[in-house]
Design goal:
Blueprint: H1 2-11, H2 14-34, H3 47-52, H4 54-59, H5 68-76, E1 86-88, E2 94-96, H6 101-120, H7 129-156, H8 161-173, H9 177-182, H10 189-208, H11 212-228, H12 246-257, H13 260-285, H14 305-310, H15 316-319, H16 324-336, H17 339-355, H18 376-389, H19 392-417, H20 428-434
């Protein structure tokens, strides 16, 4: 009886479930990353190499032209997939298109790996297995941070404990978030998710108790997440959603935000954070700004909204079907407050329009729609509201379907890692052929 009582007590503790998610993530990382002779050297790869490069450039090689990309990375570490992330304005001026914020998010874990390497007398060149492992741990840390703040935000909405647990674990395991945390850990999305969750929570705290200190923190967090990915600044589009009406939002802004003692510190914190990228450009190429992505751009007259959301190739609702219920949740939410779900829908459609207008709307070799990972918080709110109101047979049916969706998404992670689910060229015929493909072929 005591064991059963203790299990019930654990089940009612939200942090137990976060710890469980941490344990699953760390176990996966140890088994499939740290203990694999190939994968333990292949976390800092692809775009992650460009994000990470600032750290060895500044703290090991003192070389912002990234010459070590050709020597240390390419020649000394052929076991790691190679990427040349250097771009040249001329023979002397070299830069990387990747933004600085993700490397700042990595930095405590990088310094830990670097310190251990030096202390143990290991090769401290920034690219041995311990540095790759440190980045996996960093991604897990930021994802767990996001889960904690997801929980705090759902508490503000009065969501039942079991619904909160199901929604948060569903968001993590029932989408590509878990995969990009534990496998392609060097990409920016888990880090953005953690910072955005913190940002939104402190915005809600500020809404209840405005203060200069919170305004400063909010400005810093918004600057940080913008420095990770500039399009992350679009998160501010969702802010009116947390008020009962747009008029209430405007009134709050006039009363509590458009005040010198609040607005100035917040803006200073924001621009101080964002200016780090400008300072980096100045150090690299002796000019304050450059559009670093060169020929890559948005085509706003040619968005691929339906493809982005529903295509077999990369559709968000295809590879994270759990969040179909978020759309149902808008109707439930509408019965409580008409403005909030309508604003949510408008903000969702707008960011979908922006992201689907990128020249490569499928975002390269990816599993699902990875650019929505940082926005899963906003999908979790209407999903939680929907489940919170369901009762009786409908509740059982929806929860059963939700669990099946989560199971299929976990299976698809395996399929993707094994090359069963193609990284870029999925078709309807291919999807039918591999649907529920057994774990052991």
């Amino acid at each position: 009886m005591r064991i059963i009582s203790n299990l019930k007590r654990l089940a009612l503790n939200f942090y137990f479930w976060v710890f469980l998610a941490f344990g699953v993530s760390l176990t996966f990382a140890i088994v499939y990353k740290f203990m694999d002779p190939v994968q333990k050297h292949n976390t800092i790869v692809s775009d992650g190499k460009g994000y990470y490069a600032y750290l060895p450039a500044l703290f090991i090689y003192d070389d912002l032209s990234f010459g070590f990309n050709q020597t240390i990375e390419k020649q000394k570490h052929p076991e790691t997939m190679y990427t040349d992330y250097r771009y040249k304005l001329d023979q002397e001026r070299v830069y990387t298109k990747y933004y600085l914020g993700t490397s700042i998010a990595y930095s405590p874990f990088f310094f830990g790996a670097h310190g251990i390497s030096k202390w143990m007398g290991w090769d401290a060149d920034g690219y041995t297995a311990i540095y790759h492992g440190a980045i996996v741990l960093a991604a897990i840390f930021y994802s767990m941070l996001a889960l904690i703040f997801f929980g705090k935000i759902l508490d503000i909405y009065g969501i039942k404990h079991w619904v909160k647990v199901l929604v948060i674990l569903g968001a993590y395991f029932g989408s590509n978030w878990f995969y990009y945390t534990c496998w392609e850990s060097s990409l920016s999305h888990p880090y953005s998710a953690g910072i955005i969750a913190m940002l939104i929570y402190f915005v809600l705290v500020f809404k209840s108790k405005p203060s200069t200190r919170l305004a400063l923190l909010i400005g810093f967090l918004l600057g940080f997440v913008t420095l990770i990915r500039p399009v992350n600044v679009l998160v501010i589009l969702f802010l009116p959603m947390f008020f009962v009406s747009f008029k209430a939002f405007v009134t709050f802004c006039k009363k509590h935000i458009f005040k010198t003692r609040v607005l100035v510190p917040s803006l200073l914190a924001f621009f101080a954070e964002v200016s780090l990228q400008l300072i980096m450009y100045k150090a690299q190429i002796d000019q304050w700004y450059i559009y670093a992505y060169s020929h890559e751009k948005f085509f706003f007259m040619q968005p691929h909204i339906l493809d982005f959301l529903f295509s077999i190739r990369k559709g968000f609702f295809v590879y994270a079907p759990l969040f179909i219920f978020s759309i149902f949740g808008l109707r439930t939410w509408y019965k409580v407050n008409k403005f909030q779900p309508l604003w949510w829908l408008g903000a969702f459609l707008f960011i979908t329009y922006i992201f689907s207008s990128w020249h490569m709307w499928w975002y390269g070799g990816t599993w699902g729609t990875r650019v929505f990972i940082e926005y899963l918080l906003f999908f979790s709110i209407p999903l939680a509201i929907f489940l919170n109101k369901l009762k009786g047979h409908w509740l059982k049916v929806v929860v059963t379907i939700a669990c099946l969706f989560i199971f299929n998404t976990i299976l698809q992670q395996y399929q993707y890692r094994k090359g069963i689910l193609h990284y870029e060229q999925m078709t309807w015929q291919n999807y039918k052929d591999i649907f529920l493909y057994p774990i052991i072929p």
